[in-house]
Amino acid sequence: MNRKISLIDHTALTFLATGGRATTVAIASSCGLVVGRRCLPQARNMLRRLQRRGFIANGYTAPGHYALWTLTDADRKAVQP
Asked: How does 19-29 read in b/e, with b if 16+ C-beta sit within 10 Å?
């Protein structure tokens, strides 16, 4: 597996490492991917890509509720100093 990540991916992972669980909009805001109060599509795409690669996990949320993202245990060590 290619473990290289972009700067924006690293920013999102660092935000999750310091804060624990976070909503999509909170992560997007830390990465500068929010316009007004809405996330840009790039934010959701980034989170889905990080999830597919095993960096983060999405907790179950009922339809219409906020998605909560967490850093996986294996990758928590890679982001923290």
From this structure: eeebebbbbbb
Contacts with 67 (C-beta within 8 Å, 6 or more apart), sequence order: 23, 24, 58, 59, 61
Give the global pTM: 0.80
Please give the backbone phi and psi of residue 58, each rounded to the nearest 5 degrees, phi first: -110, 120
pLDDT for 63 beyond 80: no
Token look-up 């909009």 returns 25
Tokens of 49: 């890509």
